[in-house]
TrEMBL record:
Major enzyme class: oxidoreductase
Family: Belongs to the ribonucleoside diphosphate reductase large chain family.
GO MF term list: ATP binding; cobalamin binding; ribonucleoside-diphosphate reductase activity, thioredoxin disulfide as acceptor
Keywords annotated in UniProt: Cobalamin, Cobalt, Deoxyribonucleotide synthesis, Oxidoreductase
Coiled coil: none
SUPFAM superfamilies associated with the record: PFL-like glycyl radical enzymes
Domain of life: Bacteria
Keyword Cell wall biogenesis/degradation listed: no
All copies of domain Ribonucleotide reductase large subunit C-terminal, residue ranges: 95-192
Swiss-Prot/TrEMBL cofactor(s): adenosylcob(III)alamin
Organism lineage string: Bacteria, Pseudomonadati, Bacteroidota, Cytophagia, Cytophagales
Residue ranges occupied by any Ribonucleotide reductase large subunit N-terminal domain in the UniProt entry: 12-90
Name of the featured protein: Ribonucleoside-diphosphate reductase
GO BP, one annotated term: deoxyribonucleotide biosynthetic process
Amino acid sequence: MIYPIKNNDPALSENAMRLLQSRYLRKGVDGLSLETPDDMFRRVAKAVAQAELSWGGLQEVKQWEDAFYTTMRHLFFLPNSPTLMNAGTTANQLSACFVLPIQDSLENIFDMLKWTTLIQQSGGGTGFNFSNLRPKDTYLNKTSGTASGPLSFIKIFDAATEYIKQGGKRRGANMGILSITHPDIEAFITSKLTPVFCPHEPTLILPKTTSPLNQKSG
């Protein structure tokens, strides 16, 4: 069901109303919306204004709640998607972007994969710098084998994202970057030429810095 635009609702296009209905308005167990866009703006404003309790009292909270509500209602400013989705709910996770440190160890890599899924489940997006991973085919002293390289782990993060919806409402999103000084940079640059390679993971090249890349050999 698409709610009609009421007199007290902002001037939203039909497409905007459909988007709000599918992703942002709170829903009941039957999948039907429990709020209108105006209700959503009030919910968000009330939740965000609670921060004023750290500097003032209830009067300041109400003042900034009304100010933020008015700003959103007239579409002068809108916060990020997690704020619209989660503010004033049990999730209450308002951040949109997280950068997770990827180190050159299986323990760290798969620990970060766990946090990736939890962050995306709450509605956030994730970014990674894979430059610390040793190049493909590097000899491994511990196992006498060879490293699979950063691209193989990028595929794992992308595959996990395929099955996790951000906040249960939209596809997860990742950003993966690699230093231009990394030995696997050419393979990284051309990887997206294959349509099936990491469709959910935009890739960026990290410019060369003054400090050399710390690559491990064992």
